[in-house]
Fold:
Amino acid sequence: MPYAPLMRLSADALNRFGETLGRELAAPAVIGLSGELGTGKTTFVQAICRGLGAQGLATSPSYALVHQYRTPDDRLVYHVDCYRLRSPAEARDLAFDDMVRDGAVVLIEWPERAGAWTPRLDRHFRLSYGDEADTRELEEVR
Ligand SMILES: Nc1ncnc2c1ncn2[C@@H]1O[C@H](COP(=O)(O)OP(=O)(O)OP(=O)(O)O)[C@@H](O)[C@H]1O
Ligand SMILES: [Mg+2]
Structure:
């Protein structure tokens, strides 16, 4: 999947782009998704998971910052939403290092909120509102 310049995307197009990214993704991989509330970060994560063919695993409600999936070739996928971290220090308990060491795919919403605990991102995308309803702009950060 080549570098993504600024793209204006409908919800369908964002879903398709995420699915393609997921199909081509080789674990281990760490992907960051930044952008204001409601710009489509979770939508994009779910599309990547579909592309990976990943099945959701049960999530303990007390730890809903992290959702786990498993791919058909038995890789773990972690979807981590850092929005509700009260401080970067809380991200230490998420154990990003262990996820990366285990060869997982790690998809992180609001990676900047984890501060210095954010693992090195292989890809970093930013979503923003487009100038028309139901369009979003997706840009790769590097
Ligand atoms: N072009 C688009 N791309 C993505 N989502 C869109 C688009 N147009 C409309 N939407 C809608 O915007 C919403 C995006 O919600 P989503 O939960 O994915 O955002 P988010 O960035 O994860 O928000 P949060 O910061 O609260 O976690 C969905 O309801 C989706 O249907
Ligand atoms: Mg979200």
Summary: The radius of gyration is 14 Å. The first strand starts at residue 7 and ends at 10. The CA atoms of residues 3 and 40 lie 19 Å apart. Strands lie at 7-10, 29-35, 55-56, 66-70, 76-81, 105-109, 123-129, 135-140.
